[in-house]
Design brief:
Number of strands: 11
Shape: rod-shaped
Helix content: 40-55%
Structural class: alpha/beta
Radius of gyration: 32 Å
Number of helices: 11
Strand content: 15-25%
Length: 295
């Protein structure tokens, strides 16, 4: 049996039950009285039962009508909520974003950006994972991340890049080191030092290796760490020097016996970029996150 019970008819029945009049229900819903009455009649005929008892004073629900209105209200509330949810999703107010970010982004910009976004868009869930810049494009291409933040000058094949934020690399030395009070210098002037470096495969490590090679020297790596904090602590212990982003190590500079020496190398001024998979339309929630990152 093809029952003419649709949302529009359900709204007419609920309105008529609440107002006690089909005419009043038509007015509320901006529907002609004849059309509203025809919907109710068609449903009653299809079901083979009466929804309303009609009289000159209006309409009154039958027992079957009472059950229909009770369940109908629940359905209409759910549908209205679904409509709002779909509208919010289309506007980027709901959803799920998988963000892969490099360490600098995790320390320098994401805490404040994600906190603000969580307060303004609590229904968008953001899963954040930390990866090296060189690994993030593969995550995007394989569909394991929706959005990346990378330290990368040129986009790999299949990736698009958009400037996001900048930071500055400095030479980090122990507070009592001979270079602690030095004027800005080029990395080449520090290549006789032992370096505390990040693990291989990071964009920063690649820059240092390339710069040393261009100067005709090898980078003397004493040890490799997996975090900026660990690098700073080893430098503070007098075990070597390091190159790190100034904006990411403020707490360490304030609490450990360290000094930051400016570098004159052009590559010391970095631009971190938002990375997306080319040819794939970002979800509304992803576009909302991008908007927050670019503010």
């Amino acid at each position: 049996m093809n029952e003419p019970l649709d949302l529009a008819t359900l709204r007419v029945i609920v309105a008529a039950a609440e107002l006690g009049s089909i005419s009043a229900a038509g007015d509320r819903l901006q529907l002609a009285v004849a059309a509203a009455s025809a919907r109710i009649t068609a449903l009653e005929e299809a079901l083979g039962l009466r929804v309303f008892e009609r009289s000159s004073r209006g309409v009154r629900l039958t027992p079957a009508g009472q059950m229909l209105v009770r369940r109908g209200r629940e359905i209409l509330v759910d549908m209205d909520r679904l409509s709002v949810d779909l509208h919010d999703y289309a506007k980027g107010l709901q959803g799920h974003v998988r963000l892969a970010a490099n360490t600098s982004a995790m320390l320098e910009v994401l805490p404040a950006k994600l906190d603000r976004m969580a307060r303004e868009h609590p229904l968008i869930r953001i899963d954040v994972v930390e990866h090296g810049s060189l690994d993030i494009p593969l995550l995007l291409l394989e569909g394991r991340a929706d959005l990346g933040i990378v330290d990368m000058a040129h986009a790999p094949h299949g990736i698009t890049l958009t400037d996001c934020f900048s930071d500055t690399l400095v030479l980090v030395v122990p507070a009592g080191h001979a270079l602690a009070g030095a004027a800005p210098l080029a990395l080449e002037q520090a290549l006789d030092e032992q370096f505390i470096a990040l693990h291989d495969g990071t964009a920063l490590s690649s820059r240092l290796m390339r710069s040393a090679s261009q100067a005709g020297k090898a980078l003397k790596i004493r040890m490799q760490m997996r975090s900026f904090d660990a690098v700073c602590r080893m430098v503070a212990g007098g075990l070597g020097v390091a190159v790190l982003p100034l904006q990411a190590i403020g707490p360490q500079l304030a609490s450990l016996p360290l000094a930051a020496v400016p570098l004159t190398d052009a590559w010391a001024a970095r631009t971190h970029r938002i990375a997306l998979r080319s040819g794939v339309e970002p979800s509304p929630a992803t576009l909302t996150l991008i908007d927050f990152l670019l503010r």
